[in-house]
Amino acid sequence: MALIITDECINCDVCEPECPNGAISQGEEIYEINPAQCTECVGHFDKPQCMEVCPVDCIQKDPDYSEDHGTLYEKYLALAKG
């Protein structure tokens, strides 16, 4: 499952540099996560780093992108090949 940033985002710029896949970028109003690049840090870390550093806890699992650990790992491998 990819992650999503809710409208509670305060644009603090903390999450973007923490994403090892470059999935986070500034949107029109708040930061956004590209679900095609989000692996929830599988392959890099034990926990999603953006969630770990977010001061307002506005990052959550995106119910529109349901992926299990194996699928996230396969996505990580594909992204790593680049």
Keywords:
single chain; about 80 residues; alpha+beta; two-stranded antiparallel sheet; 2 helices; about 20% helix
Distance between the termini: 21 Å
Which strand order does the major sheet show? 1-4
Q: Choose one word for the global shape.
A: globular
Low-confidence regions: none
* Rg value: 12 Å
The share of residues in extended strands comes to 5-15%
Determine the oligomeric state from the structure: single chain
The run of helices and strands is: EEEHEH
Q: What helical percentage do the residues reach? A: 10-25%
Please state the structural category.
alpha+beta
Mean pLDDT: 96
Number of helices: 2
Main sheet attributes: strand count, strand direction, barrel closure:
2 strands, antiparallel
User: Using DSSP, what is the number of strands?
Assistant: 4
Description:
- The structure is a single chain.
- The protein has 82 residues and is of the alpha+beta class.
- 22% of the residues lie in helices and 15% in strands.
- It is built from 2 helices and 4 strands, in the order βββαβα.
- A two-stranded antiparallel sheet has the order 1-4. The protein has a two-stranded antiparallel sheet with strand order 2-3.
- The longest helix is centred in the last third of the chain and has 13 residues.
